[in-house]
Amino acid sequence: MGILAGKKVVVIGDRDGIPGQAIELCALSAGAEVVFSSTECFV
Question: What's the pTM?
Fold first, then answer.
């Protein structure tokens, strides 16, 4: 049972920082359900 078990999360990563896919994998391993995941470029 992970710390985020049963929670729904929205993941927004940064192109020059941590990409959304990496955060998504962390959230999934913590038991969350990822409802949206994206990597954006913030200028």
Answer: 0.86
